Structures
1.
Amino acid sequence: MSTVKAIKNAIVCLALLPRFLAAAVMFWLLDFICIRKRVFFRMRQQGGDAVDPPLCVSDSNRLFSLESLKAVWHGHKLDFLKAARLGRAAPNTDVVQLEDQRRGRILDHAKGERPLAFRAVVRRHGDIADSVVVYIEEAHPSDGWTSTDAPYQIPRHRCLEDRLRAAQLMRLEVPGCPVVVDSMENSSNAAYGAYFDRLYILQGGKIVYQGGRGPEGYRISELRDWLDRYRASLDQSNNLVIHV
Ligand SMILES: *[C@@H]1O[C@H](CO)[C@@H](O)[C@H](O)[C@H]1NC(C)=O
């Protein structure tokens, strides 16, 4: 049994090594401020969609460190081993309610066939979709890979109370959107490969949109486009009903 586990671990390591090394080299290069300035300047010039948060790192934050590499490895591993796949059933993981600390399931937040889109932007589409933010482990804990760009300095959660307390701050960032927290087993983070952050749309218990790994793959514009298309398809089917 342990041999099987060791072999599995070795395969995972081999599969992750190229992307991990690429990220490590990128981080090392970005620690040269002249390179960092140039890369982020070019990214900003390329623009992208206005609703997408721009990728930027303050000059004072070192990227290449033991803590950052550990975090990157952790993120790649969760992404590689996640159960959530586009078109497949959505993992119904445990989450904890912020108000009363009741344990529930992620799909409890889905209402019928209405799409459940994780995280904000959904306000505009509030009539056709619901949303929920699942607060997971900190990507930049103050006792780990620290970042002065992080909106709050929060230490690693040692217990559920720590996590719930930190999530109260998170709630201020997303007014009007229900916030739940991942269990201390981190089951949502693992099943959805959510670290550092990630967007999903679930519908009818299935994953109908899976965003890329954050921060670089975190595209609110993709979520918005999906919902725009969904709205158009609803309008069309409504028209059809009228024609009939
Ligand atoms: C879940 O994440 C926290 C960090 O926020 C960590 O302290 C804890 O050990 C993790 N739990 C498991 C089961 O890995």
2.
Amino acid sequence: MKGQEQKDSAAPMGTSPAMECRAEFIFYARNQSRKLGSVEVLGDYTCDFRRPDWAHRWTDWNSGRNQYLNLFLCAKHARELGLL
Ligand SMILES: [Zn+2]
């Protein structure tokens, strides 16, 4: 049996795993109704989709109750979620 060393060890070259994504756009809840769309992210943020509280944030976003909620998303996930 091979592959017993595959458990959780770091990638040898230190490259980002494909699982990780960087936020490329900010979506402001207060802009939703005005259809202003997205704002490009200038800093270095992890995509909110990867956050442990993502489900909660997404529920909040869809409820429209939290006007101060911002979503930081990569283009891929923003598209999947129908935000782009
Ligand atoms: Zn993403």
